[in-house]
Amino acid sequence: MKIVPFDDTNWKMDHPTGAIYFQHMLKGEPDSRENFMLILGKQVGDFSMPRHRHNFDQIRFPVRGPMSIGRGIDLEEGQVGYFPEGLSYGPQEDLATPDRDRISLVLQFGGASGYGFMSIEQRRQAWDELLAAGGKFVGPYYHRPDGKVQWGLNTIWEHVFGERLKYPRPRYKNVQVADTKRFNWLPVENAKGVEHKYMGAFSERGVWIEMVRLREHAEWSSVDDRARRLAFVTSGTGSCGGSPVAGMTAIQADPGEELRLTASEPLELFLIGLPPVVVPTEESGEYDLEEIPGHKLPESQAA
After folding, report:
1. pTM for this one?
2. Cα separations (Å) of 285 from 39, 58, 297?
3. DSSP 8-state secondary structure symbol assigned to residue 89
4. Of 83, 97, 129, 108, whose CA–CA distance to 26 is shortest?
5. What pLDDT, in 10s, does the model give residues 95-134?
6. Angle between helices 152-161 and 120-132 (to 10 degrees)
7. Cα(5)–Cα(33) distance, rounded to whole angstroms?
8. What angle do CA 273, 277, 279 make, to 5 degrees?
9. By three-state DSSP, how is residue 1 classified?
10. Distance between CA 160 and CA 86 in Å, rounded?
11. Whose CA is closest to 106, among 73, 71, 142, 69?
């Protein structure tokens, strides 16, 4: 069990645009198909990102203020978005909010295709090595010493793994958006004072999203023999396994571990379940190779 409290002094600049600071909450095992990174992102300036895609899955949950997902669509505070591996999204345009920073919870993780997820430590090391090789990063792009330009994350991925990046063809045609406010709270069986909202499961991996609410002094415990569970406290206070939890605390329970919470006041959780990746015996062949180095992905191009 891992419990990571929110620390408003622990923001790090880890985004190429310079407009987003990250607080790294939880992470998985490098070189594992189940690797993941759970982060809080704080926007401190105008944010712009061209249309792009990734070879991993994402779940995004705006905690304070909306976030753009492109083409005039915003993910509003209290909504949750599932971004399938291989799906193009953007261009993103988010103007800074003068009176308060925008904060979003983002989970990036290896999808059902089994391509895994590159760790932040691998990214940082590759970034330094690519700079030492004579190239430079300009926004989200990498300019090679020979003058060719490539999407920066692709360059880093290829540097780490030594092969061309493949994008799984997206299983969904659009970002899947759920408005948590429109789901009903339903009672959790054998747990007095505990309710949940189930927002759905995605891909053949069966990653699921739900919210759990404990009324004052209620107790709730959960065990899953297969799935890792990541919980994020959206409001309230209480304890988990004897350790205090409060707003924006992150909790990780691995398969077989008991997730046990007690609410000292009404406590609400955003929860993601991550079953293991089952590698297909035969790859479908439904994937694209990366864009040719030096070729910018047109905004009109679909994955």
Report:
1. 0.91
2. 32, 22, 21
3. B
4. 108
5. 888 777 899 999 999 999 998 999 999 999 999 999 999 9
6. 100
7. 26
8. 165
9. coil
10. 19
11. 69
